[in-house]
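Page header: ASSEMBLY MODEL / two components / 327 residues total.
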Amino acid sequence: MSNSIFCPACGSSEVNESVSTEFRQLTLGPEFEVHFSNYHCNICGEEGDFALKNDSVVSSAIKEAQKVFIRHTLEDFENSIPLVRIERAMELPFRTLNRWKSGDFSAASLALLRILKTYPWIIDVADHKYSKASSSMNLLQAAAKCLSSTLTESNLNMSISLENQPSAVTVRADISKGVPRIYSGQKLAAGG
Amino acid sequence: MSSEKQLEILKELVANCSVGLTKVFVMKGAMRTAEVDFGISQMDEVLKFIADGGLEQPRFINEKPWANNPEPAVKIMVCAWSFFSGSKFGYLAFFYQPKTGKWNIKSFKLNREQDTRNLAFKGLQELLDKGSSHE
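Prediction written out in full:
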């Protein structure tokens, strides 16, 4: 029983504290543990963090999970491309990503890395100054790859090619399930 | 109570949210759903969200007496509102306790009622269903 903590709903000091350990999942990141403080009011029955302890506990647990996410995401990128290339393409000052990796990052850093992890081809779009041709081509290629993997999961084979010409982007898809073959080709307007 | 008066009460909550945790409290259940449904895991963040205009197109639903009120002689009403946040349709319920001077947020969750923005599509679907039954 605590005498200094009041129930904000009814004003009673007849409150009991309990602590529980719960697991949370960082968006695209690791699972982490939080020790939540909870008060129960013996008069009105309402519950909550009457002592306002949880915000700082959650905040520091999230921060630690974010550090792990940033480090792992950048290490994954480093396995395929040098970080300095991402920095050049995204017009970030050099060594920025290493700074993030060592724990010096912001919420905006985190948001950018989540976007890059989900749509890594945006790095190529950025490298082409976000030109309409590059953004369309990369988007179509990503869509084709996504469609292809979905069809593969359904035991269908698909090969797809994209040709970027001045007046149009030609999409050629070959979908097959053994024999006979289904074939389709479609022309889309440039930049469409 | 008139809808203008209800709106005034909501505006008062929003204004108090900008003051912070000394004025507004978010209860356990509301915190849990704020995190699960809206990705907001800290009480202070819920208040900032509300204070900074996060409740889009708020619409008054109803007001009911606070069921857990230990002093029924003092009438405390819980106001319920629906709102949008992008594609999410939310539900907010709160009351003011004069004894503690605190606004208490009882619910902050996804609204299980019909999303009014989908009503037009619902009508369209009914027409399509009707059309296909005539074929």
